[in-house]
Amino acid sequence: MAPVSETPPSPASPVPGGLRELKKRRTYAAISEAAIRLFLERGFDAVSVAEVAAAAEVSKPTLFRYFPAKEDLALHRFADHEDEPARVVRAGREQGSGPLDALERHFLRGLAERDPITGLCDDPEVLAYQRMLYGTESLVARLHTYTRRSDAALAAALGSGGDEGPDVRARLAAGQVGVVLRTLAEENWRRIEHAGESADAVHPGAVRAAEFAFGQLRDGIAQ
User: Fold this and answer.
1) In 3D, which of 26, 37, 31 has the Cα closest to residue 128?
2) Taking residues 2-18, what's their average pLDDT?
3) C-alpha to C-alpha distance for 119 and 188, rounded to whole angstroms
C-alpha cells in the first residue's frame, strides 16, 4: 500500500501537549522528509542513518528516539494507518453501521479521493515511493510488522474475548478484511505501475472489485 503525505500542524492549530508536542512533531516531520528525499534520490540501501541525521540536522541518538530502526524512516507513514480500519469500525458502530458496511464505504471514499493507501494514485512521487518500497527486501519484511499490528487492532475492534483478548472469530475476520484491503490496493497499484493505466481509468474497475470483495466477505467464499 502507498503512503499518505503528512502535514505537520500549523503554529495556529491547537496541539495536545502544547509547544513541546509541536516541537516533537516538527522534528519528526523534518527527519521523515530528509529520509524520504535521500532514499528516493539514492535508494534505501545506499543511504546511512548518519546521513539522514545530518540532513535533518539532528544527532543519531535523537533520530533513533523518533525512529527505532532505519526501516521505520521509510515506513512510518504506514503507522498512521495501522489502526485506521479499527477506527472506521468503531465510528461505524457509533453511527449504527455494521463493520463491513463502514469499511466498504471508507474504502470506496478513498478510491474516489485517490487516497494512496487504496493504491489508486498515479502521483509520480507516490509511485516512486512504492517502487522503492516493493523493491527493497528489508522494507517489505518490515512492512509485515505494521500489517500484523493493524490486523490486531481491527480484531480488538471487531470483538473481545475478555482478558485473553479478541477471540479466534474476531482474529479470523480481521485477517480476512486485512487481506482484502491489501489485495485491492496492490491490484490498483499494479495496474497503474505495471500496466501503465491512469488512476482515472482504473477507478471504475477498482470500485467493482471492492464491491465484489466486500460482498464475498459478507457471503463467504462459494464452495
Assistant:
1) 37
2) 48
3) 5
